[in-house]
Design a protein that fits this description.
The chain has 349 residues and is of the alpha+beta class. Helix content is 19%, strand content 33%. The protein folds into five domains: 42 residues; 51 residues, no CATH class; 79 residues, Immunoglobulin-like, CATH 2.60.40; 90 residues, Immunoglobulin-like, CATH 2.60.40; 43 residues, no CATH class. It contains four helices and 21 strands. The longest helix has 37 residues. The termini are far apart.
């Protein structure tokens, strides 16, 4: 009976021994594996930008700034109007506290654009006073600005003086100006300048009518008579035109010539009138001189000129009007009874 009990327990002991041996074998392999992996070199990656020296208060290594050290820079030097410049932790400028310049105040002005003759002097008048001048380009285009205006109604006028000193008639524009706005007046086509070569022409001889307008424009010349006489001529590349008029159809007496220009569908008003006499002899026309008392350059002395002078009566005249006063009146830089007497003597109505 004793031997049988021992025999029954022997297989259990064997099983336990085998299990412990297996566990020890597996544990040995695990330990050995950990040792192998632990002995291999490892690489550790660190992300994020690191600026060498940033934070030491010294600007270096392409730093824009460092802490409170801005290197003498300000918001203004960075293109702003004002404010306080700061430095970011990565040593770059922080402009969040900088301010932009205030918006400009609204401008009240009127801009005039158009065409005259090439390289002509353009004069702009406001209520009879010269306010601006410019010169047209080689293609006869011009742009002129009346600035510093107040809201209200104005009468603006323009005239051109060509390269020969001949002046055009006035182009007048009554406009209403709004405060803080720019009023545009475009597609202006100033009338041609005009003159004749004789103050008196013998009937049957030719009289030359000439002047200047836009290049390659078609010029229509009208001779005022009992039966108006018309002629057409093409201006050259410089805008110069010349047409010889046969005076045979004209009666003896005083006549006048006017011209207008057409270019690409645009037509000017008629030029100022130029007088001449058809008679029995030829008299060369003297060089044109400024008409005393003619303040608005329409070759007349009338109520418009009187109103312009009256505006400046007992007032300090502007430098621009002083030029006109010297040319057309007595040249003492003021408007008084002497000037009105000059106007009365040259009065044409």
């Amino acid at each position: 009976m004793k031997n049988q009990k021992i025999g029954l327990k022997s297989p259990r002991i064997i099983s336990v021994v085998i299990l412990l041996s297996t566990f020890y074998f597996l544990f040995s392999i695990f330990v050995f594996t950990q040792y192998i992996f632990a002995s291999q070199p490892r690489t550790v990656e660190i992300t994020g930008a690191v600026v060498i020296g940033c934070g030491d208060g010294v600007i270096q290594n392409n730093e824009q700034c460092d802490g409170v050290n801005l290197g003498g820079q300000t918001c203004v030097s960075q293109g702003f109007f004002g404010g306080i410049l700061h430095c970011n932790p990565n040593c770059t400028f922080n402009v969040l506290a900088c301010t932009l310049p205030p918006p400009p105040p609204p401008v009240t002005q009127a801009i005039f654009t158009g065409r005259a003759s090439p390289q002509s002097a353009i004069t702009l008048l406001r209520d009879g006073q010269v306010v601006a001048t410019t010169v047209s380009d080689s293609l006869a285009n011009f742009r002129i600005i009346a600035s510093g205006l107040s809201a209200g109604n104005y009468i603006f006028s323009l005239y051109a003086e060509d390269q020969n000193g001949l002046r055009s008639s006035l182009s007048t524009f009554p406009i209403s100006v709004t405060a803080g706005a720019t009023t545009q007046v475009g597609n202006i086509f100033i009338a041609p300048t005009i003159s004749v070569d004789k103050s008196e022409v013998r009937r049957g001889d030719n009289i030359a009518v000439f002047g200047q307008s836009a290049p390659n424009s078609e010029i229509t010349i009208m001779i005022q008579s009992e039966e108006p006489l018309f002629a057409r001529v093409l201006a050259d590349e410089d805008g110069i035109y010349l047409q010889n008029i046969d005076t045979s159809p004209l009666t003896i007496g005083r006549h006048s010539a006017r011209a207008r220009a057409a270019y690409r569908g645009e037509i000017t008003a008629f030029s100022r009138s130029i007088d001449f006499l058809v008679g029995t002899r030829n008299v060369v026309r003297a060089t044109e001189r400024l008409l005393r008392g003619d303040l608005n350059n329409d070759n007349r002395v009338n109520l418009i000129d009187f109103s312009i002078a009256a505006f400046w009566h007992r007032r300090a005249i502007t430098p621009a009007f002083a030029i006109i006063e010297r040319e057309r009146l007595n040249g003492d830089n003021r408007i008084n009874l002497v000037d009105f007497s000059i106007m009365a003597f040259h009065w044409t109505g």
